[in-house]
Amino acid sequence: MRLALPIMLGMLSQSVLNLIDAALVGSLGEVALAGVGIGGYAMFMITALVSGLSSGVQAQTAQRTGAQCATPAQPLNAGLLIALGVGLPLTLMAWWQAPFLIRLMTQTTDVHSVAVDYFRWRVVSLSAIAMTLCFRGYWNGRQYTSLYLRIIVSVHVLNVFISIGLIFGYAGLPQMGASGAGAGTTLSIFIGLVAWLLVSVKGACQQGFLQHLPSSQQIRQTLVLAFPHSFQQLWFAAGYAVLIWMLSQIDTASVAVGHVLINLSLLMILPGVGLGIAAMSLVGDALGREARQEAHRWGWDALGVAWRLLALLALPMLLFPSTLLGLFFHQEALIALGRLPLQLTGAMIVLDAAALVLAQALMGAGAQRTVMMLTLSMQWLLFLPLAWWVGVVHEYGLTGIWLVQLMYRLLNSLAFVWVWQRRRWASPL
Question: Where are the membrane-spanning stretches (predicted)?
């Protein structure tokens, strides 16, 4: 909990920031809100391409720390070089092709224009995001997770004030409307990157930070660990886009309710994700000391805590579904439609605990490819085809799709338990 709590709070801070951004832009009208939503999702998909750098750097750092290596910051150097090498060309390509990318998600002219402007402001920060993920992975791997919390909360507070000034033109700043939200977020990300750099220059130079160029073997090892996680995150996000499309084939009410249920579930699983990231460091550290039994036990200990927390969070969904849905909907028909699926969502987040925690723990052991194959095969070969067949073809609708998702979450967690118990991952990198 000492390691996981700062990560949970940092993730919660990101969720709160998203809600504040929506409220600020929402005051400009539905076109602005829709444009920012679409531009933000496009940015989420592009960011997924570099997201694996965090786990790749963290897994190596944790194992080097456990093995008492004199230069645990070498993976950080490699990660930063990759972040620049991948991030800069990707930024240029995405900025240039922004109209085409956004047109894939909306053909409405006014919404398209807002989304392109917002996305272009956001994508300028892609390399900074990639480098920030490397710094976060390094310090989490060294088990200084409270540092992540302090920096991310400070950056988010700055983001709110800068965005308010740029959206509405306060304090002598230009009035940029919806684009101001993108510019404010990008500026705050660069400020956060400077903070990470200063902290790391002060606290990691003696561990090898910026002392030598990374070797080709170190770069290759980091890429081998980062690519599967990035690929997994990209297609995992795409799976949610397909799910929303499926709901649109049923009716508008299903899309509205499904959107709320998905966002609630993503918020409620944050404790599981935070504990999983903590387990990644603990498993990596134990394997670095060649304490294989301890590494295996850390997975189960983290999972035990996650089950308790997620079960506690699931109780209101199971016992008071109508009350919770009433916070989002005022039509009785929508509340009735979402009642059983929300209860199923509560059961889901408990069943999902093993997958959430053990997937991260496996990445701490360097088993990113195993996690990718298992996650994507379960999602794309089992859940999505079955959800289409049950919910759309046989017309069981939203409830049918959520029942299939409950089964998928259970099987996914059982698969991760099986992989964890086989212990083929239990060897240092």
Answer: 32-57, 78-98, 118-139, 151-173, 179-201, 222-248, 260-284, 305-328, 340-359, 371-390, 396-420
The string of DSSP letters for 173-184 reads ----THHHHHHH
The tokens of 57 are what?
């750097």
Element (H, E) at 5: helix 4-26
Distances (CA, A) of 151 to 5, 6, 44, 158: 15, 11, 21, 11
Dihedral of the alpha carbons of 85, 90, 93, 96, in degrees to the nearest 10: -110
Q: What is the pLDDT along the chain (429 residues), one digit of tens a residue?
A: 888 888 888 888 777 776 677 677 777 876 887 788 788 888 888 998 999 999 899 999 999 998 888 888 999 999 999 999 999 999 999 999 999 988 887 777 888 898 899 999 999 999 999 999 999 999 999 989 889 889 998 998 898 899 899 999 998 889 998 889 889 999 999 999 999 999 999 988 888 898 888 889 999 999 998 999 889 888 988 888 788 788 878 887 887 788 778 878 888 888 888 899 899 989 988 988 888 999 999 999 999 999 999 999 999 999 999 998 887 777 888 889 889 999 999 999 999 999 999 999 998 888 888 999 999 999 999 999 999 999 999 988 899 999 999 999 999 999 999 999 988 887 666
The total number of residues shown for the chain amounts to 429
CA 70 vs. chain centroid, Å, equals 31
Residue type, 21: D
Residue 74: exposed, middle, or buried by beta-carbon count in 10 A (0-12, 13-18, 19+)?
A: buried
DSSP 392: I
Long-range contacts of 65-69, Cβ-Cβ distance < 8 Å, separation of 24 or more: 65/141, 65/142, 65/143, 65/284, 65/285, 65/288, 66/284, 66/285, 66/286, 66/287, 66/288, 66/289, 66/291, 67/288, 67/289, 67/428, 68/288, 69/288
- Token pair 């989304």: residue: 115
Q: Are 347 and 318 in contact (CB under 8 A)?
A: yes
Q: Which of 323, 352, 353 is nearest to 338 (CA)?
A: 323
Tell me which amino acid residue 366 is. Answer: G
Structure tokens at 170: 């306060």
- pTM metric for this prediction: 0.84
Cα 111 to Cα 25, 99, 178, 226, 359, distances in angstroms: 13, 11, 11, 34, 38
Whether the CB-CB separation of 295 and 365 falls below 8 Å is answered with yes
Query: What distance in Å separates the CA atoms of residue 77 and residue 7, rounded to the nearest whole number?
Result: 23
